[in-house]
Amino acid sequence: MSEARTRFTAIGTRNSGKTCYVVGMYYQLITGYKGFSLKSGGDTVSRLENWMDTMDDEVGQNRFPAATSLTEITDYEFKLKYALKDVMTFNWIDYGGSTLNSREDNPQAYYSLKDSISKSATLYIFINGDWLYKTDRGKILETKEDRIKYVKRNARVLNDYLMEFAESHEDNMPPFVFVITKSDVWGPYLEDDEIYDIMKECFSSVMVEGCRAYVVGVSLGKDISDDDYSGDVDPVDMHIPFFIGIYHQFLNFCMYLKSEINNETQRNLQLIHDNTIFIGDRQQEIGKEKSKKNSFFRRLFYDESNVNLCEAQIRESKREINEANNAINSNNDLFMHYKKLMQAVSSQLLRDSSRFCMFENGVEKDFNAEEMIEL
Ligand SMILES: Nc1nc2c(ncn2[C@@H]2O[C@H](COP(=O)(O)OP(=O)(O)OP(=O)(O)O)[C@@H](O)[C@H]2O)c(=O)[nH]1
Ligand SMILES: [Mg+2]
Q1: Candidates 11, 13, 18, 20: which one to mutate for ligand 1, based on the most atoms within 8 Å of Cβ?
Q2: Exposure pattern of 335-360 as b/e (b: 16+ CB <10 Å)?
Q3: What is the pLDDT of residue 177?
Q4: For the domain bounded by 6-252, which CATH number is listed?
């Protein structure tokens, strides 16, 4: 039983904050968060480290990564650790927002994005936080209706991709995670929980029976935009979208392990049962063979090699029983290991549950990790 590599894809229009999110999440998790930490692998480490330094040291717009070009598809490999031990390797794929409309200009990038979506365990949909309070021309969106209209208009291009994800995962629909960036700037304009109403209205196609969607607001820092973007980097809630993805991944893996383990345990129990009966049979045979020695006439027919054969068969059966018991125990240990990790992630999400919203079958709820009861 081996764990498949996990892939998360981030989609969003240009300037929505996808690349800053990867940097901010890494910034928040590299030094460890509630026992979890992230480590990047491959040649993306130095890129992330440079961006973190630039965000800390520079001011103004130059402190942020440049826009991601159409051909620049970055596959960030991260190792997730818990209590300093490797837990899981996953890939986070970051596309430039222009890829969403590139079917004609750059079919290669476009189809690579589509392929990545179909292979993703979770789809992250980035919503540019600016859309929640002002237009591209800087006009302030005064009412909730204005904001809904503006988000709907700008997010139209994303709907195709949501449908694509839903179609490619029809049998077992993973969650959609809506990440609303730049909460430092839109937060003051919105009523409490208004963001959830807006998202429900704008993405009604996935707020339906059979779908799970999450909505999380994130920011690089509550003061980041102060004095022409010279505020400190201090990521807000950037771990939440990522923890949601890994919670679902662990959950899937535990469900899979549970059904595999049940099947394997059934096979092993049958094997133990058959071998136990066989051992009983062989012991009887030995008894029968040895009883010949007590009879004057049958003594001549006593066959030592038959006793030796039965004893060898008993040893072999006992070895098989041992092996089957070990397999049952080690599968249970593996399951408990992942269940413990999932509990650590879900406990953190439960603690943070007032900071994000979950829509299950279109109904808004607090995250409750209810599905873990099945395990
Ligand atoms: N106030 C504020 N601005 C942010 C935050 N995150 C990103 N930004 C701004 O948003 C801009 C775009 O962020 P990117 O991460 O480059 O956006 P992207 O989605 O990767 O854009 P493309 O690569 O063009 O698709 C940054 O240059 C910042 O100006 C945030 O948390 N708060
Ligand atoms: Mg980018």
Answers
A1: 20
A2: beebbebbebbbebbeebbeebbbbb
A3: 97
A4: 3.40.50.300
- Per-domain residue ranges for the chain? 6-252, 255-351
CA 172, CA 357: separation in Å to the nearest integer?
21
User: Ligand 2 centre from 76 Cα, in Å?
Assistant: 13
Ligand 1 atom with the shortest distance to the CA of 12: 19
Enumerate residues with CB within 5 Å of ligand 2 (an ion). Answer: 18-19, 68
Q: pLDDT tens for residues 43-99?
A: 889 999 999 999 999 999 999 999 998 878 899 999 999 988 888 889 999 999 999
Termini Cα distance of the chain: 18
Q: How far is the CA of 123 from the centre of ligand 1 (A)?
A: 19
Residue 65 Cα to ligand 1 middle (Å): 8
Residues in a beta bridge with 78 = 40, 90
143-197 pLDDT, tens digit per residue, is 999 999 999 999 999 988 898 888 888 777 889 999 999 999 999 999 989 999 9
At 293, phi and psi to the nearest 5?
-65, -20
Residue labelled with tokens 């807006």 = 198
Q: What are the structure tokens assigned to 159, written together?
A: 């709907």
Residue 164 corresponds to which amino acid? E
Nearest CA to ligand 1 atom 28: 64
pLDDT tens for 344-374 read 999 999 999 999 999 999 999 999 998 888 8
| Torsion of Cα atoms, 108 then 111 then 113 then 116, to 10° | -120
Reported residue count of the chain is 375
> Could you tell me the pTM of the whole model?
0.89
